[in-house]
Each structure stands twice: as structure tokens, then as C-alpha cells.
Amino acid sequence: MNLLAKRGGFRHHVRMVTPAFSDCINKLGVDEKDVIPFGRNKAKISLDVLDKPAAPGKLILVSAITPTPSGEGKTTVSIGLAQGLQAIGKKVCLALRQPSMGPVFGRKGGATGGGKSSLTPAEEINMHFTGDFHAITSAHNLISAIIDNAMFFHTLNIDERKVIWKRVMDMNDRSLRSIIVGLNKQGFPRETGFDITPASEIMACLCLATSYKDMEERINRIVIGFTTDDKPVFARELGITGSVMALLKDALMPNLVQSVEGVPCFLHGGPFANIAHGCNSVLATRMALHFGDYAVTEAGFAFDLGAEKFLDIKCRQSGLDPAAIVIVATARALKMHGGTALADLKNTDVDALKKGLANLDAHLDAAAHYKRPVVVAVNKFFDDSREELDAIVKHCAERGIPCAIADIFSQGGEGGKDLAQMVVEAADRSSAPFKPLYESALPVEEKLNIIARNIYGADGVELTAAAKKKLAQFEASRTPFPTTDASEDVPPASPSPCATLKSPTGPASWWPSAGKSCACPPFPSHRTPCTSTWITRATSRGSEKYH
């Protein structure tokens, strides 16, 4: 097709020549009129493609054990698994989250996989990409501006002390967590702050929406604050939902990129799992299922945090049903859980690793509640010893869990073929209809207790006085909250204190916090150095400069 580049791109850091992006488009078989190009190597795909008949593929959910500070490589394994499926002859698509620039410039760095299991164009994906995060930020902050305007003109009787809607930006900045606005002569001084864009309720709404109409309805029912007599104020009362939707018109369409081996990837949405539900958009997942016989997706953080929300929130609201679950483990993380210091994780320590297997067991036990086949993927690092890897495989075999060593960073799809074969066998098993962990109609506190006991190993949840007050305040508004989620790990065999509750009704979920939590992360004292190749174009001279 002539609207996209015919030549392949070059991935310098893995020394690979990637297929031409036009080949990725043709592989999907998507009509040219449904492709909106963003340069030579990425595009948006119209939602109209979902109206066309297609046999849905099988959904594979990738999660992980409790990670080290650097993460366990869920994205890398997801990409390597998809490339492995392609290598054994399967038609496969990826559905992944977009990176936030906060972590990109912070501790973790980029989020496009690594080595020969990467997405391309990595530098563009990790930065501004197609502008979705900017659109979400603008839409969120438009609501913020109109809230202050309504208070200035006293149109909605909003109590400035009870506004719960902050502003957002896609960057780590601890200095903006708590600020005072309205200090000019015409202002209305009040205390507020900034969250990071992935924590925005607009982001959560976009990622759970199934259509433009659904997105609009979710935005309308967001609670932005309360009146002086404690009645909830909804976003629809601001009268700007149409303007917000105009800003999000293109952002709701999933983005298409590819892996370095040419696997199509629908990269869309990026809520964090510790301050939101941690999954890519429902629409991107549906597109991956629409075009592939297998769709590989991931949920943020560990199984207890991200996968629980994927299954109990995203699947419940969208009707998605995973055919198999992959839990990513690393020898490094298991050694950390067994007592090895972070600085010593490169050293072989089989005894510590065996102690740390209790963490893997806890996540396997949690996954068992959902009655889906589970495969363990060991993300292999170059300095992992054979004794450590054998110990993990042996432990999984004793539990009857398939386990594959995935050398996908250095070998790409070839190193993921064993894992891919195990996943295909698991996904082909017949399973009972999917059932979430708890019923929607249960009281919020009972849902929290079910999650605490079954996922976190706690005796239950104890709501603090502040949490009880917040719960009563929202329940008095008689707004529907069909789902809930947990946000903090808890020690085994103890009640977990729930310090506060947040409930943005657009996503239709509660965000309980077991202690202090932050929706605007800080930069660490030592950031991950940015190793991207920066390109500046001196267009006036018709030349390019690389540095």
C-alpha cells in the first residue's frame, strides 16, 4: 500500500533490520481506509474494523511475581512470547500499554521490551508517540479549569474544600503534588495538586470504554467533588463533555506498531496498576483478538495487583475471557524474596532462590482462584546459573505447572518457542466459563475482604474512620459501583488497614489504599540514564544530525 513506507527500519541497539511497517498492515488484512498513518512506522486503526465479522482469537494474559525495583520483564516476555507463537506458525497480535514519560525519565526507563524482544519505533513510543497522553492530559485539565470557573461564578454550589478532581501531567514531579491555585486577584484560592496522567480518571475511562458513546457516559458520571451540603457534583453538570470528547476523538482509536520481528502490536492506554487498573484499553485488546488467532496482553505489576484487576474489573466490564495465564518469574526476583540483597542478585544463590519460591507459590495460588491454565515463564538473564534455573523448573513440575525458560532477550522469537508451545497447549484446554472472584452486588467492604483473603493472604480488611466516612459519602450519592480493587500488598494472616478510599465513578471502581500511596510519583535520587538516540533535523539545511 502506498500510504506507508515500503522500507524497513533499523534497530541499532539489537542490530536487527525490522520488516517494513506496510508488511505489518498487510499481514493484518486491514482496509486502507481504516488506517490513519502517523509517520512511516506507526498508525491509528479506526474502530470501524471491530464491526466487521471475524472469529475471535484466544486471549493470553501475562502477569508476574512480585518484582524487583527494575521489574521482571513482563513486556519483554509478552513480546518474546508473541514472536515465539509467530515462529511456530501461529497468527498472533499483541495488545500492550503505552509508556508514561514519568518512568521513562525515572527509575525504570522505557517500556518497549528489550533486546530482540522489543517494539519499534522504541524512541517515539517512549516519548510523545501519537499524542494520546497529551490528549488525555488536556481533557483532564479542561475539566479542572471549568471546575475553578464554576466556583468563580458560583454556578454549581461546589465546596472548594471538597473538590476531589486535581490536575495531571505526564511526568514525575513531587513539588506539584500539593499546591495552592487561584492566588491572583480574580482567583479563588484553594489547595489542590497534580497527579501523573496514568492516574487520571480520563485514562481509566478511555481504557475501559467500548465505544465513543460508552466513553462519553463514563466521563459524564465522574464525581469531581461535592457541594456545600455534601451532594456529589458530576462531570456532566459542567456542560463540557462534548469538548472533552472532541479532545479525545483520535485518542480513543488504538495505535498500531510492530515488534522487531514484525508481530503487530496494538499499543493503547497506560494506567498504572498501583494507582489505577493497570491494563491497556479494551478496544486494543478486542482488535488484537479480532485480527489474531492468539492475542497476548499484560497486566501491570504482579499478579495480585495488576492481574486481579484485569480479571475482576476489565474482564467483568468487557466480557473478555483469557484462555491461559502466564506468570513471569526471574531468578533475580526469587533470590531477592529469599533474602539476597539487591546488590548481590547477580551472584548464584540457590538456597535464597528456593526460599523465594514461596512468592511464586503465593501468586500461583492466587491465579488458581480464576480456574484458568497457568504457565510459568522464567525470563532468563545472561548471568543466571543452570542450577538456579533447574531449581525453578523442578519446583513448578512438583506443583504440576508447565514452566519454560524464555531466553527471549537475546534470541527473540526463537528463544520463546518452548514457551509458546506450552501456552498453546494450555490455551487449547477446555475451561469453564470465566467467573470473577466476587459478585458485583456485594457491599464494597465484603469485596475488599474477599480480595484480601484470597489474593493477599490477609485475614480481612479493617476500614479506618476516614475510609468509612468516604465510603458513606459515595454510597449516599446512590451511584453505581459494580467493581472494586485492592492496591497494596499485605502481610499474611493479619487484617489489612484500609486508610482511604477513592471512587471515580467513570471507571466504576474503588481505589482502596492500605496506607500512604502517591498518584504523582517522584524521581529517585539516581535516575535510569536515557540511552535513546536523539535525532534533530536541521530542516533549513536539509540535513540530519545524530547525537
- Tally of strands: 27
Quote the beta fraction: 15-25%
Estimated radius of gyration: 23 Å
* Low-confidence regions: 1-13, 478-495, 530-547
Give the integer mean of the pLDDT values.
86
Could you give the distance between the termini?
33 Å
Total count of helical runs of at least 4 residues: 17
Which descriptor suits the 3D outline? globular
Fraction of helical residues: 25-40%
Biggest sheet statistics: 12 strands, mixed
State the oligomer.
single chain
Secondary structural class? alpha/beta
Outline the fold blueprint.
Layout: E1 8-11, E2 16-20, H1 21-28, E3 35-37, E4 43-45, E5 58-64, H2 74-87, E6 92-96, H3 101-104, E7 113-114, E8 117-120, H4 122-126, H5 132-153, E9 158-163, E10 167-169, E11 179-181, E12 190-192, E13 194-196, H6 201-208, H7 212-220, E14 223-227, E15 232-234, H8 241-247, E16 255-259, E17 264-267, H9 282-291, E18 294-298, H10 303-318, E19 322-329, H11 331-337, H12 350-368, E20 374-379, H13 386-399, E21 403-406, H14 408-411, H15 417-427, H16 444-454, E22 460-463, H17 465-475, E23 495-498, E24 500-502, E25 511-513, E26 535-538, E27 543-546
Parallel strand pairs: 5-18, 5-19, 6-17, 6-18, 10-13, 19-20, 20-21, 22-23
Antiparallel strand pairs: 1-2, 3-4, 4-16, 7-8, 8-16, 9-14, 11-12, 14-15, 16-17, 24-25, 26-27
Structure at a glance:
The protein has 547 residues and is of the alpha/beta class. It contains 17 helices and 27 strands. The strands form eight sheets. Strands 3, 4, 5, 6, 7, 8, 16, 17, 18, 19, 20 and 21 form a twelve-stranded mixed β-sheet that branches.
